[in-house]
Amino acid sequence: MKKSSVSLRSLGFSKLLGGLILAGFVSALHAQAPAPAPAAAPLPAAAIPPTWAQGRTPDGMNPTLVPNPPGISAMPAADIPIDKLKVPPGFKIEVWATGMPNGRSMTESPSGIIYVGTRFTGNVYAVINKGNTREVKTIAKGLHRPNGVAFANGSLYVAELSRIIRYDNIEQNLDNPPAPVVVFDALPKDEPHGWKFMKLSPDGKYLYFQIGTPANIVVPPYTHAAIVRLNLKTNILDYVAYGVRNSVGMDFQPDTKELWFTNNGRDWVNEDLPNDTLNKLTRVGANYGYPFCHQGDFLDPELGKGRSCDEFEKPMMNLGPHVAALGMRFYSGSSFPAQYKNNIFIAEHGSWNKTKRTGYQVVRVVLDSKGKPTKLEPFVTGWLQGETFWGRPVDVQVIKDGSLLISDDETGAIFRVSATK
Predict the structure, then answer these.
(1) Which domains does the chain have, with CATH numbers?
(2) Strand, coil or helix: what is 238?
(3) 32 in helix, strand or coil?
(4) Which of 356, 410, 408 is nearest to 386 (CA)?
(5) SS3 call for 244
(6) In whole angstroms, what is the distance from residue 412 CA to residue 254 CA?
């Protein structure tokens, strides 16, 4: 496959001053000019606001709010308080696999191996199901934000911050993976919202992923705040949706093949606005409002002036403010009760910019016969105890046996929800 790349041309300018006459003229000119003002001292590092604080106003939200530190270690299996997790009657939850520091996005191969990406540790894991036990192998190290994973034609695709790579024949080489093939390396290198969620299209032709906004609230370059797709045959990148602040979860409706996705709302308006949203791609090129309109009906206090939310696509459902809605999947299995068919499960990673924490759960979205969301309710709770959290769900994955896997980057574990007889 042809490797794609871009290069930036830099322009340099130089000028040679020659001759004693010219030198004397310049010296005299400088002598007559007033002395330049002293250069301003650079701001100390502590005075430069971190990227997550961009858009915060002095009279805004609780000034003590800061992002939660990332989970970069794995909790021992014996220390995971599985008894604190609650599921509806007729279901049970268990620890399915452990030992994956910062384990996040998941995908299942046709053979049933679960591949898990990470954001901070730079690892990619393979989880092999051995009946009553699971074996976890670290198949890649030292990658840069390898959050997104997808499996196609015997190869594992991994989305790093600024490139897509591929591990060929991976399942024949789990103990000695080959060097990755660079598939596409022309993606932006911005760290804010730069990590990717990746999903293979139902026809196997495209990899869909997001390119998040490079700041909290800003008019982004046309290359950002979008959902794109990469044609695996031609290596051409297309933009399919705009105005998407940061989607870290997407899936295709099993019957209609329509793309649905979660989207994280902006920070620092207040603790109750705006909502994270659940959206559907209505057409290629649709615009979902960022940075002018949020949650379909809330104009941005600054950038929304002179605009109308009617210019943009509306979300299918508002999910709540600052819940950090990430991975989502349609339930396509057959072991859950019939009323769960084609429901949507969403992992809420949990808030950091809200005094009273919210999220830290997996929710269920019920759709009616026309595919319209009608109800949002908790499905798995308990990672948040009071105002203290011990786990943070990131992604959900329906596997071959019809059960639901949930990754948690705080404990480095995967939980499994199954229906009881």
Answers:
(1) 60-419 (2.120.10.30)
(2) strand
(3) helix
(4) 356
(5) coil
(6) 29
| CA 39 – CA 37 distance, rounded (Å) | 6
The closest alpha carbon to 106, from 416, 419, 411, 394, belongs to: 394
Sign of CA dihedral 80, 81, 84, 89: positive
Query: Which amino acid would we find at residue 379?
Result: F
CA distance linking residue 365 with residue 296, whole number of Å: 18
In tens, the pLDDT along 50-109 reads 889 999 987 778 889 999 999 999 999 999 999 999 999 999 999 999 999 999 999 999
Q: Model confidence over 278-330: pLDDT tens digits? A: 999 999 999 999 999 999 999 999 999 999 999 999 999 999 999 999 999 99
pLDDT tens-digit map of 249-265: 999 999 999 999 999 99
Residues with Cβ within 8 Å of residue 255, at least 6 apart in sequence: 342
DSSP per-residue letters across 186-216:
-S---STT----EEE-TTSSEEEEEE--SSS
**Is 235 exposed, middle or buried, given 0-12, 13-18 or 19+ CB atoms closer than 10 A?**
middle
DSSP codes, 45-104: GGGSPPGGGTT--TTSS-TT--PPPPP-S---GGG--GGG-B--TTEEEEEEE---TTEE
DSSP, res 20 = H
List phi, psi (to 5°) of 389: -110, 145
**Structural contact between residues 296 and 277, judged by C-beta atoms closer than 8 angstroms:** yes
